[in-house]
Design a protein that fits this description.
The chain is an alpha/beta fold and about 300 residues long. It has helices at about 55-75, 90-110, 125-135, 155-160, 195-205, 225-240, 245-250, 255-265, 280-290; strands spanning about 45, 50, 115-120, 135-140, 165-170, 180-185, 205-215, 220, 255, 270-275, 300-305.
Length: about 300
């Protein structure tokens, strides 16, 4: 990726002549070594964040981002609460689960083969900074650039010595050329994809042969009925508390175990679903839910691998 200064910015150009990394968001061709792109697109950086999202995609995302920030601010996510996942100031029960999924990820990849790692839906980049510490050339990708809870907040980790790029883009149209990413993580984010199969297809496209995808902290249910119940309850809550439409409230979805298997088969990806112990309190809630016929979500680590031959 090139030598870097202590602020995380690259010293050498981002796109070396013979090994392009990024795709143009307009024409979807590799960005040239010397800008602009033949289609007219110019790669721009603002406050350390590279803009690789088409204007129409950014406009389409904005209503959801406005609603997302409204809810996240009200629920006190982000801002000064960035020492994650081990020292959260708030939402400790949620982070207790994420600590265990993170530990599972760490055992799998901290000593694995290195290369480019893309953290999709990176939010404030707390996981991206660990990918960097494990030796990956790490890239945080998100459509949210907020300094409270989005890519802007990742500046804290860069100031502390972490080295990674921050790129504004969507998971449905990843800004990478094919076959460059060794590890792709999506932490508490895949359920925001507008089209699960299209997004997974994009993930596969950018992977190197044998590259892996790790989906963490996305809610998974045994039955679609339980997932639909959760979504209906959230839609009602968001409408009453925030005046958010049901359409926007349902932008955050869920997976089922059957759906995971079907998606993996459709994309010819090798699947390994690793359960993660939820903790005593949530395990109690799971047992109680089964007794009354209302199962709650599980949060396994979902691993998908691209075949060596492509």
């Amino acid at each position: 990726m090139g030598a870097r200064r202590n602020d995380g910015h690259l010293v050498r150009p981002l796109m070396e002549p013979n090994t392009p990394l990024f795709l143009c968001p307009i024409c979807r061709q590799p960005l040239p070594f010397r800008p602009p792109c033949p289609c007219g697109f110019v790669l721009r950086e603002s406050e350390g964040i590279l803009n690789l999202i088409a204007d129409q995609d950014a406009e389409a995302m904005q209503p959801f981002l406005n609603a997302y920030e409204q809810v996240r601010t009200d629920e006190q996510w982000g801002d000064d609460d960035l020492d994650l996942p081990f020292h959260p100031r708030r939402h400790r029960e949620v982070w207790a689960i994420r600590q265990r999924t993170f530990r599972k990820l760490e055992t799998l990849f901290a000593r694995s083969e290195k290369g480019f790692a893309a953290d999709i839906g990176a939010g404030n980049c707390w996981l991206t900074r660990y990918l960097d510490a494990w030796g990956f050339d790490s890239i945080a990708v998100d459509a949210n650039t907020s300094g409270r809870d989005g890519l802007g907040a990742g500046q804290k980790f860069i100031n502390e010595g972490a080295r990674f790029l921050r790129v504004r883009s969507t998971m449905e149209r990843l800004p990478f050329v094919s076959g460059r990413i060794t590890l792709l993580t999506t932490n508490a984010a895949f359920h925001y994809a507008s089209d699960f199969r299209a997004s997974l297809g994009e993930f596969k496209r950018v992977l190197t042969p044998g590259g892996r995808i790790a989906i963490l902290d996305t809610p998974v249910y045994k039955s679609p009925a339980d997932g639909e119940r959760m979504m209906a309850e959230r839609a009602t809550n968001f409408r009453q508390r925030y005046g958010i439409s049901e359409e926007l409230a349902r932008k955050s979805r869920y997976l089922t175990f059957d759906m995971i298997s079907e998606l993996a088969a459709q994309e010819s990806l090798q699947l390994d679903v690793q359960p993660v112990w939820p903790g005593w309190r949530r395990q109690y809630d799971q047992i109680r839910g089964r007794l009354v016929g209302k199962r709650i979500a599980e949060f396994p680590v979902i691993l998908l691998q691209k075949a060596i031959d492509g």
